[in-house]
């Protein structure tokens, strides 16, 4: 009986408080970014902040529901949840509503729902379920492929809907698989390919290959036992292949707007006239967002005082570019606070995941942390100009019901699983 | 170890983000600059530009309102174009053309639709303006020149160009700035400081409201009124006398360095550069490359000074103790040096001392003096440097560093100057033309006037300047401190006596004015022009410098009349009359006045462009103005006389 009464209080309150702080601060900034003139009614459904208020209230209902459901339900029904979620993605091709070039929404009454947001949680459940299966051995190539398929299906479906950002999020599962024993060479190869690709784009394929060549042969010269001459040559030829492959991919496969984004990111354009043109066109958002953040200074311009925010200089400021509002109005202090809250939230979830006795809970927890991390990395990195423009929201912070609820589901399923770890055997 | 990959990545990214934030928000953030923030619209409130008065408190320049019709194309509603065009006095084609141009510039921002409406048009239009949505009237301020004189002194204002904006960020597109004269040299004083209103705008450039309820807004600071040293009546009189001539007149008050009159001929009515016709008129003046009305001859005209420069050589000779006032030089109707000969109009065998040398402007006397100066230590190289330094102490050969907007250095040569022509040997005879103010010596009328003022003061001068007073502010100290020349005071008296004799018995004895002791010096300067690639001699320039009265001088003047032949023919008359006008307030030599108004030099100026061979100097006929114009000039003269 004692255990029964205590169960409600075994939720991890640190995670919950961090979650609520982010949601609350997010709402404050959406209010700044989207209000026009005097605010009469916080529930004004014609304004984004009004809708977000409603979304947040509905979130509390959702949390209660999620925590009320038995923890075992999520593991048992994970396959079904996954299949339903995939069907909802496929259904978009028939019933989907096109917004800004992406067919990612269902329109129900006056509301729109974005199933790809929920698919992340479903996939995390499915991956956890598959890896924790006693018959699965992640070192086994066949099992690796099976896992990859689970991840690739939703990734591919959202890519077809022109939602490149969400596709990249599925890369988060690499962290999960690596934690669960994916061979190390995946990591080595992955990092190497990224480095070679960046070098090839920035300095050209020839220079990139030469750099790799010099590094490999120097390494060979000092560690003859670890790497033979033949292996060195093999690595070199592979790098040359990748370098030219990346160049080809960049020039012939990527769409012009994607090329522009990468070119801007790597500062490939030197001509000041063209740079100015870029700032007026596709780099407009980024340029305005950097200016807004920069104008905040140390302590910011103050709540509702940012003139760039008030003047709505940054398009999409209440959604993907919400962090620039924080930058302008709350300054370095506010931004650092947001970064620290996210880091703490992710680390807390990771810490809890490591404590899990059941592999299912641990893998799922890892999935949750990885997905939040990738969103955090890409969104804030993009708004500050550290990585190329990729449109994904900042979890809990950006305006949008689907996103908020999807992350609520993601996090609170884990909180429920965690609260149940005492009952695990 | 595997669990640390994500753990480490999260911490690494956190640190990376905070570093980037530090870079963006603290390191590279230059604080918040309202002026550079493109989210804030800056609306300027222009202050009244200061008025300009002459030395006697007569208003010269004030402001007049001007009205521009502005349009914001997006806000324009269908209108009765016919009525609108009639009100603005434009045709429909022009309406469509202007409207399209405004829309192409920006549909949201205001453009000028019709500029500088007359007061009458404005009065009618104002009543009906509310009928025309999207159009409004913007009031601007233009200059109004009360008397149409002194265009070269007062200058004008015009819109800033992009080069000025780049150099001086105070100015924004469409702002007015002084372009020439007083308007340019006292720009900051006259313009004041504009006020500013900050208005929050959105990314579509629409106004949302005052930024922070206007706490950063500033009020405009009014421009200051200034008094200038010009005597408007004397200036007007000088301009009238110089009508139909080319050249410059500068009159200075020796006891203060104040410029009493500064005439550049030909000139123009300053009012034509204010208002609707400004750019058309300016282009016309600018393109007149023969008469060059925008060229301020009194400040920028660099001429060989001719005989007035003999005064300088006399002073240097006395200071260097190579001559005494009583030493005599025999003139052989010229001066022979080597196998060359410099002509003079003295009779053969005339023995001149210093005073008669100046009185008769004897070339032989000054050639001898010049050679004595240079050969003093048997080293002409060292001699010419000494000579040069003496001359430069009178403000010759360099900018006067005054408050006039333009100027020229002129030229006083020294040994360095001749280095490339005479690299090794250098004798005094090489530069003998400098003795009589020709050759390499070159001065501007203002420099000559200043030299005359220094002689009048017996050895010092004040930098000639044009500012008399600025509301409650002292004029700069550099204008009130004495600049001493290198010539001792006692050497001036014989030279001044010589100048006095010029009027009493010498080259200017026909120019005497009753009751005023004038000291002067005539000058007649040979000059050449290149016509069809041939060096052709033109009629000599007429030059005159003078000051008066001999004791306690009130005015020093230099007059330069291009191609006026000998010194007392044109320049001397102008100088004498202006001296009389300034000292007495009226003139008695009506004969000279009449003569000057009657005679024009336009025929002289037409010669080089006639394409035909022509005679010069004595062989030319005088040209008279026609009776009609003569009457007009007389009428003008009467108007000036009635001002006293």
Automatic annotation (TrEMBL), chain A:
Q: Which Pfam families match?
A: FTSW_RODA_SPOVE
Is Transmembrane helix there in the keyword field?
yes
Q: GO molecular-function annotation terms? A: lipid-linked peptidoglycan transporter activity
InterPro entries on file = FtsW/RodA
> Which keywords belong to this entry?
Cell shape, Membrane, Transmembrane, Transmembrane helix
The record gives the membrane topology as: Multi-pass membrane protein
- Which residue ranges run through the membrane? 13-32, 53-71, 77-95, 148-173, 185-217, 229-250, 330-351, 363-390, 396-415
- GO BP terms in the entry: cell division; regulation of cell shape
Q: Where in the cell is it found?
A: Membrane
Keyword Acetylation (UniProt): no
Q: Which residues form a coiled coil?
A: none
- According to its UniProt record, where is this protein mainly located? membrane
Q: What GO CC annotations are associated with the protein?
A: cell division site; plasma membrane
Name recorded for this polypeptide: Rod shape-determining protein RodA
Q: Which organism is it from?
A: Seonamhaeicola sediminis
Classification from the root reads: Bacteria, Pseudomonadati, Bacteroidota, Flavobacteriia, Flavobacteriales
From TrEMBL, chain B:
Membrane topology for this entry?
Single-pass membrane protein
Family annotation (InterPro entries): Beta-lactam/transpept (IPR050515), Beta-lactam/transpept-like (IPR012338), PBP_dimer (IPR005311), PBP_dimer_sf (IPR036138), PCN-bd_Tpept (IPR001460), Penicillin-binding_protein_2 (IPR017790)
Q: Which UniProt keywords apply?
A: Carboxypeptidase, Cell inner membrane, Cell membrane, Cell shape, Cell wall biogenesis/degradation, Hydrolase, Membrane, Peptidoglycan synthesis, Protease, Transmembrane, Transmembrane helix
Residue ranges occupied by any Penicillin-binding protein transpeptidase domain in the UniProt entry: 247-575
Which Gene Ontology MF annotations are present? penicillin binding; peptidoglycan L,D-transpeptidase activity; serine-type D-Ala-D-Ala carboxypeptidase activity
Q: Name one GO biological process term.
A: regulation of cell shape
Segments forming domain Penicillin-binding protein dimerisation: 46-208
A Pfam family matched in the record:
Transpeptidase
Q: What is its EC number?
A: 3.4.16.4
Where is it localised?
Cell membrane; Membrane
Q: Which SUPFAM superfamilies match?
A: beta-lactamase/transpeptidase-like, Penicillin binding protein dimerisation domain
Cellular component terms per the entry's GO annotation: plasma membrane
Q: Which domain of life is it from?
A: Bacteria
Q: What is this protein called?
A: Penicillin-binding protein 2
Gene source species: Seonamhaeicola sediminis
The gene from which this protein is expressed is mrdA
